[in-house]
Amino acid sequence: MKKQTRVTHPKEVKLLDGNDAVVSPVYRSVKFTYPTIADSLSADAKEHGFDYTRDSNPTTRELELLAAELQDRDDAIATGSGMAAIWLTLLGLLEAGDRVVIFVESYRPNRVAVRRFLPKLGVQFTMLSVHDLDGIEQAFAQDDTKLVLFEAPTNPMLQVPDLAAITALAKRHDVITVLDNTFAGLHNHGRYELDYFVHSMTKYANGHGDAMGGIVIGEKQRIRAIKPLATNMGAVLDPGVAYLMARGLKTYYLRYERHSENAQVLAEWLAGRKEVTRVFYPGLKSDLGHALARQQMTDFGGVVTFDLDADKDRTWAFIDALELFTTTASLGSTESLVAPVKLYLGTDLSAEEQTRAQIGDSTVRFAVGIEHADDLVADVEQALRKVFG
Ligand SMILES: Cc1ncc(COP(=O)(O)O)c(C=O)c1O
User: Fold this and answer.
1) Is there a contact between 282 and 296 (Cβ–Cβ < 8 Å)?
2) Mutate to test the pocket of ligand 1, among 160, 202, 238, 241 (most ligand atoms within 8 A of CB)
């Protein structure tokens, strides 16, 4: 064989039977083949085989099955980002003439997807508060209402919706429930009768802020209903990134626990400061969502939001004065982050809607990392001192 041919057909190194890699290999191949066309058409190949990575890939599949198990469901589709996962459920489940229920407390891009883009496809929406159970029941009872998209707790204001109540109402009115469970994580909320879970795996699953991905999780027949669109749409997770997600998941429980412990320390410390007028963290006993969150979740996550006794300029000065908290979007990575909430997450809302969402000029969101809590508290204290004296 000429070397020009050899480089495109290198000798394969096959492992001996029983000689296994301890860490799963990354299947970078886009294409998969069989010895014969007939083999590729067998029932086994159809059920468990691989053809083309836009449809499925062994590395990505391993991640999908692991994430589904953590979320107490049996199937999943991994996507290139959290928003791709949201869009897969919306496009996969809705058609023109349908209505979606969304919440004023939702993550801004989720709200934007439903309010700005879905109407172009003939899908209308009703926007309520997650606490308005009467309004939710009325909206669910409308004939055209097909789906509800919500978060628990919500990003950025950490409001805790009543999952048992909302899922019961949805069942009664035949409304599909899609929970964006990014904040609570893969280990929470699995026991509720939710039809689809969506996660941004960019956050706690990956955990290191160096890879983007998303996932839709549900029972097999629900995932099967949206799989053809996923393959056709092509917003798939690259197998190299799936590997990073799977590696991140090995330390997922350790990290989530530490994020939660650090967030609890900071929330309690902030609640005792005169410069802070209100703290939103479901782990705080004084938080309005605490009792519900204790029933629904095993721990409360790494995001703490609070209001300063300050105007916008002093709030931004406080954020700029922080040294260990980096000013940027995102959450769930090892390092602590800070965001001016109105600027980053509230600009699509009218002034009245911002008030309903409890977002003000002095609202600050911490995405607490896994550093030592003492250093984080010391950093916040020096920033407060710098601005408030
Ligand atoms: C609650 C929530 N849902 C969805 C997303 C979107 O995820 P991604 O940035 O991976 O598209 C985010 C990102 O911050 C989020 O916080």
Assistant:
1) no
2) 202
Atom of ligand 1 nearest to the CA of 330: 14
- CA dihedral 331→335→341→345, nearest 10 degrees, is -30
Does any ligand 1 atom lie closer than 6 A to the CB of residue 215? Answer: no
What number does CATH give the domain 37-250?
3.40.640.10
C-beta 180 within 6 A of ligand 1: yes
- DSSP character string of 43-87: HHHHHH---BTTT--HHHHHHHHHHHHHTT-SEEEEESSHHHHHH
* Segments of the chain with pLDDT less than 70: none
**279-317 pLDDT, tens per residue?**
999 999 999 999 999 999 999 999 999 999 999 999 999
Q: Is the CB of 82 under 6 A from ligand 1?
A: yes
Cβ of 200 closer than 6 Å to ligand 1, yes or no, is: yes
Q: What is the pLDDT of residue 134?
A: 98
Residue whose structure tokens are 């949805």: 170
* CATH 3.40.640.10 in the chain, residue ranges: 37-250
Pick the CATH number of 252-388 from 3.90.1150.10, 3.40.710.10, 3.30.450.20, 3.20.20.140: 3.90.1150.10
Q: Which atom of ligand 1 is nearest to the CA of 212?
A: 10
* pLDDT, tens digit, 9 for 90 and up, residues 178-210: 999 999 999 999 999 999 999 999 999 999 999
